[in-house]
Specification:
about 180 residues; single chain; alpha+beta; two-stranded antiparallel ribbon; Endonuclease I-creI
């Protein structure tokens, strides 16, 4: 667990400010045939940048996550572990916060979804719908960048869908996620 009191104020404020402009809190859905529900809900925090040095500061001070490069030369720092989100990312941003109202709202929704998941609500259709409702306005709606619409997520919960419809939906999904990534 991250001891946020050990993060220097200057660094914490810098990383929070950087995240305010360049970071993203996401709630991706992944189609899972081997999971209790048709969808696995995850939490993800990421920041993209051409300068790897700044992203390495996130990894160093949040004490979690991965750094990866894309073919276009952009680096991104990403945290996907539920435990790391709960024990490192959320406490860090609770302490250092954001100035923009938009990022404050996205983070508050992200934390709300994290609490629902901690309580196991993501393991029911009702909980999935609650998460979808909260997530809907995050990241400027994410609508044009999310792979799956709320309707396509809910469709796999609907009894009476033909097996052909279910098979086509499964073929189309191919175990990828709908994480909204920063440009």
């Amino acid at each position: 667990m991250l001891d946020v009191s050990q993060v220097p104020q200057r660094i914490g404020n810098y990383l929070a400010g950087f995240t305010d402009g360049e970071g993203s809190f996401n709630v991706p859905f992944r189609k899972r045939g081997d999971y209790v529900m048709p969808w696995k809900v995850s939490l993800c925090f990421n920041v993209s940048q051409r300068d790897k040095v700044i992203l390495a500061l996130f990894k160093q001070h949040l004490k979690c996550g991965t750094l990866r490069s894309r073919p276009d030369g952009v680096w991104y720092y990403e945290v996907n572990s539920f435990t790391a989100i709960m024990e490192n990312v959320i406490p860090f941003f609770d302490r250092f916060g954001f100035l923009s109202g938009k990022k404050q709202r996205d983070f508050a929704k992200f934390k709300r979804i994290a609490r629902l998941m901690q309580d196991g609500r993501h393991l029911s259709k009702e909980g999935i719908n609650e998460i979808l409702e909260i997530r809907r306005d995050m990241n400027d709606g994410g609508a044009n960048r999310r792979k799956y619409s709320d309707g396509s997520i809910n469709e796999l919960f609907e009894p009476g869908k033909s097996s052909e419809t279910a098979r086509q939906a499964t073929d189309d999904l191919n175990l990828v996620d709908d994480t909204v990534r920063s440009a």
